[in-house]
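Please fill in the sequence for the structure shown.

STRUCTURE ENCODING:
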């Protein structure tokens, strides 16, 4: 049992780490929220960690959305279509996630983390020129991709930015900077839908969520400041962070497989 003061410090520090990584490399940090809540902060139940992490990710995403919107990075029409449709998927996915065995869910989460690391190591697609298309076919395509991305986000309790950014680029042809800004509306909304679903079942630790968000705000500021200095080394940072995700993923797989596979 973890004492309240060390646990509070662990929650603030873990939130700061997630916020820092999000500010530094522009995505992927939220996937560390659940492992940190479980193995560093000491949340006892996987479902509580997922619900608490989803709420923290949602609030941090909305906070970052404000900054991107002020810089004109958000394509609101595409962002709203993606967020609205994907929220339906997030509600469905989070309902399935709550009903799924917690340790088996963590095992699948570990596999997802390995997939994310591979995606982060792949070369970025070239930025496309010109305004994104906004015809009916594009909106339908955007909605279909959003439904799948939202379901994955809700099932695993993650923000899903690493899925949403390439999905927006694929569906609309928008430049990456606009996809990053526009994705934050979906990340925040998916996380909020997942958090509300988990909250309805009493699966959120509100105090830890508040401490995690507090750390995330300060960590995000630090990450953004450092990112401006290390912009030329963004690919190196992605590789380092992908390596961290692989290490954490292997630990999650080890811990969860030990719980679901009987010994002897």
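FILLED IN BY: designer on duty
SEQUENCE:
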């Amino acid at each position: 049992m973890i004492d309240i003061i060390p646990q509070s410090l662990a929650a603030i520090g873990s939130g700061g780490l997630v916020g820092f990584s999000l500010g530094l490399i522009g995505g992927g940090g939220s996937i560390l929220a659940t492992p940190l809540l479980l193995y560093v902060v000491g949340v006892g139940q996987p479902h509580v960690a997922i619900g608490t992490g989803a709420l923290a990710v949602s609030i941090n995403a909305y906070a970052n959305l404000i900054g991107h919107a002020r810089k004109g990075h958000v394509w609101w029409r595409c962002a709203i279509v993606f967020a609205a449709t994907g929220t339906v998927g997030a509600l469905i996915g989070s309902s399935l996630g709550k009903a799924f065995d917690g340790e088996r869910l963590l095992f699948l989460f570990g596999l997802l983390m390995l997939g994310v690391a591979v995606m982060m190591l792949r070369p970025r697609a070239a930025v496309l020129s010109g305004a994104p298309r906004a015809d009916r076919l594009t909106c339908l395509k955007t909605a279909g991709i959003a439904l799948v991305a939202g379901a994955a986000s809700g099932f695993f309790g993650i923000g899903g930015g690493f899925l949403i950014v390439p999905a927006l680029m694929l569906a609309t042809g928008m430049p990456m900077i606009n996809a990053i800004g526009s994705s934050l509306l979906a990340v925040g909304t998916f996380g909020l839908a997942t958090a509300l679903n988990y909250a309805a079942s009493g699966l959120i630790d509100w105090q830890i969520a508040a401490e995690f968000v507090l750390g995330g705000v300060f960590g995000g500021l630090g990450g953004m400041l450092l990112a401006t200095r290390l912009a030329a080394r963004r690919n190196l940072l992605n590789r380092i962070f992908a390596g961290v995700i692989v290490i954490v993923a292997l630990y999650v797989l080890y811990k969860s497989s030990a719980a679901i596979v009987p010994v002897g």
